[in-house]
Amino acid sequence: MTILLILLYGAAGVAYAVYFARRSAAAGRFATTGLAAAALIHTFDIGMRTMEVGHLPFVGAPAAVSAFVWLLAVAYLYTEVTTDERAMGVFIVPLLVALQAVSAFSSRVVEPAPMLDNLWFAVHVSSLLFAYAAFALACVVGITYVLLFRELKSKQLGFFAARLPSLRVLDAMNGRAVWVGWLFLTAGLAVGAVWLAQLQPDSADPRVRAMSFFDPKISVVILSWLIYSFELYARRVIGWSGKRAAWLSALGFAIVLLNLGPVGYFLTESHNF
Amino acid sequence: MELLLIGVSHHTAPVDLRERVDFSKRGVAPALAALAEQPGPAEAVVLTTCNRAEIYAACEDPAGTAADLAGFMSRFHEVPDEELAPHLYTRTGPEVARHLFRVAAGLDSLMVGEPQIFGQVKDAYAIASGERRTGTLLNKLFTTSFAVGKRVRAETGLGEGAVSVSYGAVSLARKIFGQLQDRAVLVVGAGEMAELTATHLQAQQVRTITVTSRTLARAEALARQVDGTAVDWSRLGDQLLEADIVVTATGAASPIIDGDTVARAMHTRRNRPLFIIDLGLPRDVAVDAGELEQVFLYNIDDLRALVDENLTRRREQTAHAEAMVAEEVETFVRWLRSRGAIPTMVALRRRFEEVRRAELKRLESKLNSLPPEARARVDEVTRLLVQKLLLTPTERLKSVGDEEMVAQYVEVVTRLFDLADTPEDGEAGSRRPPSRRKTPVTS
After folding, report:
1. Which CATH architecture has domain B165-293?
2. Across residues A173-198, what is the average pLDDT?
3. CA-nearest residue of chain A to B178?
4. Cα three-residue angle B273-B276-B282, rounded to 5 degrees
5. Residue A127: exposed, middle, or buried by beta-carbon count in 10 A (0-12, 13-18, 19+)?
């Protein structure tokens, strides 16, 4: 199933690349259909696993990464349908393929700790994953903004100017994605903190005991929260829109990826479920 | 039936003559109605733009009809024959298809690849078919030309990129701001270039246009033209805070807007993007303004460079587009040739029908003894039999693309079934249309 998903996401990615390079409408339609099919099968996969284990399959880094891929695919499809803009797919889908591959090849079967089998956990993880998906979108949109911005500034209009929507649309998309992501990030962190406050006094689990601001996973996520908060503040108050906001959201997402990848896999002592 | 085209265009006629033969002056529909009175063309479409006036027709006798139509154009527009004739061109058969396909693709336009012509061809066809002046031939010709136009645009990028400085400025503005509806425009200077660009921006329905000039009266005059407001020259600095797009085109000898002014304005604007189009020569805006982060400063040379690049790209794409047109003409010609067999098929069908009727007549006395339902059934069965027998030969003949092969087949069928002495040679259906206004469909 996971291999099939990688192949489907891969095929959609190739179609998006062809669409971007040649601007052929047929390739564009194929790309969207392929991605929608992949997302649908992914939904089915997640549904099956949920039925199998009796709760959302977010436990363990691979499963969480796969869920993140699914959320990002859905979030991207939503933006594509609402804005009628396919140009971003070529940047997003390779990310999906790469993350799904990471998730597939590091797959390990995890017996969830009993304390995770509750609503707190589901809300905590799903809002964070949703936030990350939104940040991924913001990052990609930000990068395309910078690419187009450079062309317009250097007065060498060409490849990107012919393919991307206007700077203003990209900037607005970036702002909106960061805002949505920030809301979910804040909510996810708040739920996590409240839940921890309930658990910690009487838990002997070393992982629960390791939950503190100094655990890498937690300090890194707080760092990303600070960066996104600053982006929102800078946008509203200082007028840091456009290029600076784009760079900030790219930086923020680099840190999120760090957290999803190396930190989540190797460094954290608290979140290694 | 053959295709025929007669017309004038920017390739053959000077602008004053083109203006005089512009069908849109008196309307295309009246022209079509007047054409319907003409004996020659069974189908007609009138295509008229500021660069061309053309009549597409389907007729039996192209040479005679061409002369008729030339006379018609001269009478309809009241332009003496001898004045019009040297500028007229005539095309027949496949060349009509090639011409229309090139026109629809924008290859025959003054500005190669310009997009308006495609819509104009569509409109011309819509009017003619609304007036019921088109039939099988012109329907096929025009619908194919739409497909060609679409294909060329989709596959070659021939229509892409602005090719005039003022339109280039507009398309840049759209790359920065997207839709321009809620954008404010400031025009500095009231000369011709300022006016042209302001008009283009007005066509994009920008929110406001503010005009300022050293002479307030000139600013007011331009403001009236573009539905804007004029402000005093001294308020230029304030206006920089409001505007999203600034067009400067003054004759000032040194920059009227320096980098510091723009920098201060950007600070107050909290970095809201500002697009400055400097059309002045010498330049109106200091170059260092363009180094500010959200300032996009383009001067006339930058715009010209963009336009030249687009023009070069269009030229490169032309060969590609021509190849596509050639391919489509070939397909169309194959269809056209397959129609060469139609008169024979009509004659053959008539011959079979005659045989069927004759047999039924011969058996009339016997059939009369049958109940009416049974008689109807016999009629139906025999009719179906004839239809089925003719189905395969008809399909085969239609699919032959080669003119010589069609001729051979026609020859064989004519001899085998002795069709040559049929009183009417099978073209009766199209030679004498039952009504002038509605063209019969022979296939």
Report:
1. 3-Layer(aba) Sandwich (3.40)
2. 90
3. A166
4. 155
5. buried
| Closest chain B C-alpha to A155 CA, distance in angstroms | 7
Using an 8 Å Cβ cutoff, are A49 and A57 in contact?
A: yes
Task: Return the domain boundaries, chain B.
Answer: 2-159, 165-293, 337-431
Comparing CB atoms, the residue among A24, A168, A241 nearest residue B177 is A168
Nearby residues of B408 by Cβ (< 8 Å), 6 or more positions away: none
pLDDT tens by residue, B286-341: 989 989 889 999 988 888 888 888 888 888 888 889 999 999 999 898 888 777 77
Per-residue pLDDT tens over the stretch A110-139: 555 666 667 787 788 888 888 988 898 899
CA angle at residue A204 from A201 to A208, to 5 degrees?
70
Is A7 an interface residue toward B (CB < 8 Å)? no
Please list, in sequence order, all residues whose beta carbon lies within 8 angstroms of the beta carbon of residue B412, skipping any fewer than 6 positions away.
none
Q: Which of A72, A192, A212, A180 is nearest to A123 (CA)?
A: A192
Q: How far apart are CA B35 and CA B46, in angstroms?
A: 10
Closest B-chain CA to A236:
B270
How much is the pLDDT for B99? 95
Residue with tokens 């058969």: B93
Residue B438 has pLDDT above 50, yes or no: no
Considering B36, B50, B126, B241, which one is annotated as catalytic? B50
- B160 to chain A, minimum CA–CA distance in Å? 9
Look at A166 and B302 and tell me if their CB atoms are within 8 Å: no
User: Do B193 and B249 contact (CB within 8 A), yes or no?
Assistant: yes
DSSP β-bridge partners for residue B44: B57
Give the max Cα distance, chain A. 64
Gap from A221 CA to chain B (nearest CA, Å) = 30
Question: What sign for the dihedral angle of Cα B363, B366, B369, B374?
Answer: negative
Query: For B135-175, how does the pLDDT look when each residue is reduced to its tens digit (9 = 90+)?
Result: 989 999 999 999 999 888 878 777 677 767 878 888 889 88
- Indicate yes or no: CB of B271 within 8 angstroms of CB of A155: no
Set of chain B residues whose Cβ sits within 8 Å of the Cβ of A155:
298, 302, 305-306
Domains B2-159 and B165-293 are alike in CATH topology = no
Find residues 238-267 of chain A whose CB sits inside 8 Å of chain B. 238-244
Question: Tell me, what amino acid is at A74?
Answer: V
Question: Which of A168, A240, A241, A243 to mutate to test binding with chain B, by most B CBs within 10 Å of its CB?
Answer: A168
- Is B59 among the residues known to form the active site? no
SS3 B200: helix
- The helix or strand, by DSSP H or E, that contains position B415, with its residue range, turns out to be helix B403-416
For residue A23, the chain B residues in CB contact (below 8 A) are: 157
Return the CATH fold of B2-159: Beta Polymerase; domain 2 (3.30.460)
- ipTM (interface predicted TM): 0.77
| Closest C-alpha among B106, B68, B112, B103 to residue B88 | B68
The pTM assigned to this predicted structure is: 0.65
Token pair belonging to B202: 């007005």
Q: List chain A residues with CB under 8 Å of B294.
A: 242-243
Q: Which two tokens stand for residue A6?
A: 């990688």
Beta-strand relationship, B208-212 and B184-188: parallel
